[in-house]
Amino acid sequence: MEIKIECRDLEEVVILVPEIFQDSRGFFMETFREDHFKALGVPHHFVQDNHSRSVKGLVRGLHFQWDPPMGKLMRVSFGTAFLVAADIRKGSPTLGQWTGVVASAENRRQVWAPAGFARAATSSPKMLRTGARWSSSRHESGPVEKKANSPKALAIRDS
User: Fold this and answer.
1) C-alpha 53 chain-centroid distance
2) Is the pLDDT score of 1 beyond 70?
3) What is the pTM of this model?
4) Where are the domains of the chain?
5) Which of 68, 99, 125, 127 has the fewest CB atoms within 10 Å around its CB?
6) Closest C-alpha to 14, from 89, 86, 110, 94
């Protein structure tokens, strides 16, 4: 099965779409395969896999980790979410810029947000994040976690 790059944005953020095998029984897809990621030039060493569930209307983020710096592969396993990667790398030509994509169980989009990018998502019933480093709560940061209809929330909404 193949994993394709749909696009690259802000130099290093990669939108990936895995091929799917579907029949009357359901479906199967490979969401990660080391040799395919390596051939595509996408980081391919992951050490931790996380699964979260959120209430509708919640914005999760902007989350980042400095020590050790961590990139994450994000995807949605049920429902729909708007996934965001914002460049917070000091000295980067794209510092402060962000990109986002609607990801869902149906479109199978995955977003690779490398180290130095903060990540956010509107609520999806179920979201998976795979980390290229171990999580360190002492070195994590993420000031925004609000209901999407809150006046202090990011201007990101479910589509």
Assistant:
1) 14
2) yes
3) 0.78
4) 8-16+47-147
5) 68
6) 110
**H/E segment holding residue 39:** helix 34-40
Give the model confidence (pLDDT) of 42-92 as tens digits: 988 888 888 887 777 778 888 888 888 889 999 988 888 899 999 999 999
26-28 and 98-104: which strand pairing? unpaired
> What sign results for the dihedral spanned by CA atoms 30, 43, 94, 98?
positive
Q: Pick the residue with more confidence: 63 or 127?
A: 63
* Angle in degrees, CA 27, 120, 77, rounded to 5: 15
Q: What is the H or E stretch that residue 82 is in?
A: strand 80-87
Confidence of residue 156 (pLDDT cuts 50, 70, 90): very low
> Is residue 101 a contact partner of residue 15, using CB atoms and an 8 Å limit?
yes
Structural tokens at position 134: 């171990």
